[in-house]
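tool_call: predict_structure(chain=1)
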Amino acid sequence: TPKLNIFRRFIWSIFSKNVHIVTCPTKSTLKKLNELKIFPKNKLKLLYDPVLKINSINLKKKEKIDEQFIDTTFILSIGRLTKQKNFLLLVKAFKEITKKFPNLKLIILGEGEERNKIENLIRELSLNNNVFLMGYKKNIFNYLYNCECYISSSLYEDPGFSLIEAGFLNKFVIAADSNTGPTEILDNSKNGFLFKNNDKQSLVDRYFEYKNSNSKEKNHRIKNLKKFSKNFSYFKHFKNFNRILTN
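tool_result:
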C-alpha cells in the first residue's frame, strides 16, 4: 500500500488536478486513497492487475519439479526472503504442524536478505529434512500445480500475485488477514482460510482446520477462489482498462 510521507503527499496534492485517472489494484487501496482525499473520488478506479497469462501457465505447470519432491506431499510458499513475507513465522508454525504430520515438507521459493536467519531457524528447529529454501525459480507454476496447499504468511500484500496464481491452479490457499490484498482475495475465508496476522498459533489452527475439512468444504472454497482469480487475467485487465478509459 502507498507509504505517504510528507513529501509524497505534497507532490501528489500539487499534481492531483492534472491527473486524469488513478487506478488501484485492490478495494483496500481504493478505500485508503478515498479517505486521504488527495485525489477527487471520481478519479479513483478499481483495476485488478494483469497477473494471469493463462496459456503460458497451462504450459509451465506441466514442467517437472525437482526430482526429490516428486510423489512428495508439500506445502508451498513463494516470495522474497524479507521481513514483509514473514517466513520466520511460517517456519515456526510448520514445526508445530510436523508434530502431527512428520513426513510433510515445506518448500519456499525466493531469495532475499533474510535467508541466513531462516536457515539458522531451520537448523535450530531440526527441520533440515522438512523445510527447503529452493531460491529463485523462473517457473513457479509447476510447484504450485503439485503442492498440497499454498500458504502466505506476509504481513501485507497488495494484492498478492501468488495467491491469485495458486487459486487459478485450483489450490487451497491459507493467508494472513492483513486487511490488504489477501483479505480481499480470500473474501473473509469464503475463498480459502485467513489466519490472524503474525500469529503462529492461528496459522497452525487454520492448517489443521483445512486438513479436517471435508472434500465438499474444500472444493467450495477452491472454486470460489478460482472464479475470483479470473478477474486478474490479461484479457479481463484489458477489458476493464478499456472501459475505464472510454467512460
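agent: The longest helix spans residues 215-229. Proceeding to next step.
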